[in-house]
Every structure is written in C-alpha cells, then in structure tokens.
Amino acid sequence: MEFRHLGRSGLIISEIAYGNWLTHGSQVEQETATACIRAALDAGITTFDTADVYAETRAETVLGQGLKGERRAGLELLTKVYFPAGPGRNDRGLSRKHIMESIDGSLRRLQTDYIDLYQAHRYDHSTPLEETMDAFADVVRSGKALYIGVSEWTAEQIRAAHALARELHIPLVSNQPQYSALWRVIEAEVVPASEELGLGQVVWSPIAQGVLTGKYLPGARLPASTRARDDKGGAASVARWLRNDVLERVQQLKPLAAEAGLSLAQLAVAWVLQNSNVSAAIIGASRPEQVTENVKAAGVKLDAGLLKRMDEILTPVAMFDPAITAEASPQTRP
C-alpha cells in the first residue's frame, strides 16, 4: 500500500480506501462484510469511508463491528452527514441540530470516540453556510472530529466554505466527488480550486459503478448478480453507461490493461490515482477477493503514452461538464 497526505493537511491516508456504500447492511451482512474489512486491513488499507445514510445507518454499525479490536490510532475513519437518517423533518440537511445529533449517532454506531474526517455529504441550500460551518467548528473543538470535508460541492461552494473555515480556524481539507476515466466533471473547476486551497480529493466510483471492469458487454444481456440488475444497489447510476458506444470503448481498453500488467478494474483505479490532487480512491466490495484484486492498483505508475491512448479511446463518451456537480445537491432537502 502507498500513502498520501489528505490535501495539504498533516493527515496521511492510504491511497486506496475501503468504502461500504451499497454493500454493508444491504447487499452483504456482517460475516461477509467483516471478511471484506479484514481483507482490506491485510492489504494495508487504513482508511475506511462510510456515511450515516448508507443502508439506513446499518453500514456504520457493520463497519464499527468489523473494525472492533483494531488499534484506533492506526485507522482513519471517514463518515458523512446530510441525507435523511430518520423520519423527522430535522433528521436531514446541514442544520446545527442535525449535525450535532448525527455526529453522536455516528460515533455510537462506529464504536469510536472521534471521526478522523467528518464530511458534508451534499451542499444544503436550506441552511445558511455560516450555520453549517459554525456547527462543524464546534464538532472539531469538542474533539468529536479532527478534520472537515465536503462531498460533491462545486468550486464556488468549496471556496465559500474554505473562507469560513479559515475564519473559524478549523481544517477543511477534502472533497469527495465521483471521479473516473468516464466521469471527469471535477477536472475543469473543482480540482483547480482544491489545489489552490489545499484540499485533496477522496474519490468514489473509480470503476464507474463497475462499467470499467469490462463485465458489461455491448449487445449482451446484463450479467446476473450485478449492480446493473439490482434496483436497490445502484442500477440507476449504472444505466447511464450501458450504451453500446460506451461499452465498446471500454472493451478497447483491454490491450492497454494487458500492456500495463493490470486487470481493467486495476487500470481504472490506477488511472484516478495518477491525478496528483487525488488523495485516495475508494473501492467497495461484496467479496474479499475483490478487495485483494483492486488494491493491486496501489503504487502503479502509468506512462504518459498509455494515458494518452486511454484518453483517445474514452474522451468521446466521457462526461466533462463541470455544471453537473451542482445537480448533485438538490435545492430542497431530500
């Protein structure tokens, strides 16, 4: 495993992180989840990402149980707040009330005294940013979180939050966006702003919801037991890529992966790690073997010629529009 600083902070994290969105507490239960967590630890992963909303809070519980007994100081635990974590009107968003109640719930479920990185899961248009950042400041000063991050915020929103964080003397150090060789919307605005301000990217879905593994073939039936056939497991997010023009181009990556001595999934994870503003790529798994395979992307250096050929193949079907990031945060709370 290789390790990187989280932005310009002093916190060092594993460049491949293990995340449990769509898996723990929903697709897989405790025994399999624990096996995946053990595989991640055995591979040298020290950074684990979750959120209170995943599997209706069960994902945090499963992760906390799976990490029980590990030396806390040797781990970096990341979780998030924003999406509904209960039925009430205030069980969502980034109000002071929800943040203060959510951090305590996450600590209890994760069986820990503090969170290394507490992240705003989306931008809350219904709450003044000053209220949100002031609440985060109190969370940090109380010792319940060490660093603050955001997820899927625009460059403008990141700049505004960073200015307030500086006034409040709290460390806003990261953004967690979707990023892959097919989904490149952060490159034009979010990455330059983050580099300027000292934030690192902790990216999710580096294999484009499984599409960049090459398992979806053009013109073929969708394989059984895959995310694309699971209405509760992200089928809608996969659907955008299940076009023949996309799938044909993904198949064209196979010779490049073979040239690099990698699987297609490993190539996809290695690709995002070539971006110097990426501090970590989050991988998920429903089987421990998937963890063991995908961590082989750690430390891989892809040569410029191969990267150029990947660009030539995927650019015609990749997403680049920076305006898409703003669409991730609804104008009203979910």
Structural write-up:
With 334 residues, the chain is of the alpha/beta class. The chain has a domain at 3-209 and 276-300: Alpha-Beta Barrel (TIM Barrel), CATH 3.20.20.100. Helix content is 36%, strand content 13%. It is built from twelve helices and ten strands. The strands form two sheets. An eight-stranded parallel β-barrel has the order 3-4-5-6-7-8-9-10, surrounded by five helices. Strands 1-2 form a two-stranded antiparallel ribbon. Helix 3 runs parallel beside helix 4 and helix 5 runs parallel beside helix 6 (190-197). It is globular, with a radius of gyration of 19 Å. The mean pLDDT is 93. Keywords: NADP, Oxidoreductase. This is Aldo/keto reductase family protein. InterPro entries: K_chnl_volt-dep_bsu_KCNAB-rel, NAD(P)_OxRdtase_dom_sf, NADP_OxRdtase_dom.
Summarize the structure.
The chain contains twelve helices and ten strands.
